[in-house]
Amino acid sequence: MNATYPSPVLAARRGRIVVAAMLVSTFMAAVEVTVISTAMPTIVGQLGGFDLFTWTFGVYLLGQAVTTPLYGRLADQYGRKRVYLGSVAVFLLGSLLCGFAWSMASLVGFRAVQGIGGGGLIPLANMIISDVSSPADRPRALGYVSGIWGISAIIGPLLGSFFTGTLGWPFVFWVNLPIGLLAAALVVRFLHEPAAARLRTPIDAGGAALLALGIGAVMATLVQGESFGRAGLAALLALGVLALAGFAWREGRSAAPILPLHLWRNRLIVSANLSALACGALMIGATAFLPPWIQGVLGRNALVAGFVLGVLTVSWTVASMGLSRVLNRVAYRPVALVGSLALVAGAAGLLLLRPGQNAVGVTVACGVLGAGLGLHSLVFNVGVQGSVAHGERGRATSLFFFSRLIGQALGAAAFGGALNAGLAAAGPAAHDAMRDLVEPALRAAVPAAELARLTGALAEALHGVFILAAVIAAVALPIILLVPRRARLPRDG
């Protein structure tokens, strides 16, 4: 243990409680994924606005992506505890507001608030666990974090199905409130940080605004590209490029850049962040776009969709937990290779999906894809944290999760654009008709011929999403060549 606690016995006891609090926090974030993914078709069926479906995920991820590096810098400057509590407070406020949404547009706005708070949950939990764990215990402790994803994969769909069928879909968001308050209470009581001197540097709010504007404009171009004329599309894309160029210019001249550019000279960190980009896109491709396939194309209910996503996260968990027991004895590159091959195989399985099949094929593909994601996530997470000094661990960890969130955000936008373009080809009323497929009561009233036409249109549009996912998985394979051959878990520090 580090010097956070006054005695070894007290350190062990408080350390275990703090790790438990971070697991509770991770559970909250993991349930957010599984519950929302399976509940969104029902929410769309009640609120309408299928054309905004992608934005309920995208704007949340955008808020996370922009704030994650800020949380890392704040945590290094002001301590993990107070920054974590601030992140939880904003996330819970957004969760509360989401339950009161009256339209898809309002839900998108409240999801942005939720995302701003959620940007700190996972990276700060990982930082805190690393701070209270010894280097030898760190892989196992972070492996427990992956285990929570498996538990949430089982509980999340059940909660989503229960809330949407009984208390109502707002409780899908409100379930976060007691969980978040419990985690915050444990942190307040048991996490004691040393009063260390920290260098206080200003936070570049202007740079963060340029980053948000640039990514947001690019996402809008990808998601809604078919609804803009050529002039509008060019103007929006130009705005995004200029904003990102301005952000890069500002970062190069800032004494306190949002993204620690010097870390990009570390080959392991470069490979980890590139992996996070690809894995983030594949994650959102599965969690956001498989439920519409299962519920809209196959005609199964939200519980089946939740089970399929549960297989993905359980396989993620099994792979991560197994790796956590041997990672201190193996090099990083072979693990990354096995994970990359699993990503390619899982994405290829999605390409084989066809209407009329049962859910077995998509379940197997999710299991293989989840194993690849789990291996990549743990090996690169541990690798990043072990390759920098403690004083830079917050920024390095945040950069890793920032890269994953950017991958998720841009993946949501690109996949959403492919989906929207595919539906647009089916006719101007296709978006509104899709709500009939994902809402069981409305689906039952659709004539058989029209149901077949709509199901085919949705399947064709989602097949375009799966093609893009396969391309991303293939591009991710060469990333392992950047991993240093002898890179492995350090035995000290």
Helix content: over 70%
Residue stretches low in confidence (pLDDT < 50, at least 5 long) are 1-6
Q: Structural class per helix/strand content?
A: mainly alpha
CATH superfamily label of the largest domain: MFS general substrate transporter like domains
Q: Determine the CATH topology of the largest domain.
A: Growth Hormone, Chain: A
Describe this structure in words.
With 493 residues, the protein is an all-alpha fold. The chain is 77% helix and 0% strand. It contains 18 helices and no strands. The longest helix has 40 residues, at 8-47.
What's the helix and strand layout?
Layout: H1 8-47, H2 53-78, H3 80-98, H4 104-118, H5 121-131, H6 138-165, H7 170-174, H8 176-190, H9 205-223, H10 230-253, H11 267-297, H12 302-324, H13 332-351, H14 360-386, H15 390-424, H16 430-438, H17 440-444, H18 448-476
Helix pairs in contact: 1-5, 1-6, 1-8, 1-11, 1-12, 2-3, 2-4, 2-9, 2-15, 3-4, 3-5, 3-8, 5-15, 6-12, 9-10, 9-15, 11-12, 11-14, 11-15, 11-16, 11-18, 12-14, 13-14, 13-18, 14-15, 15-18, 16-18
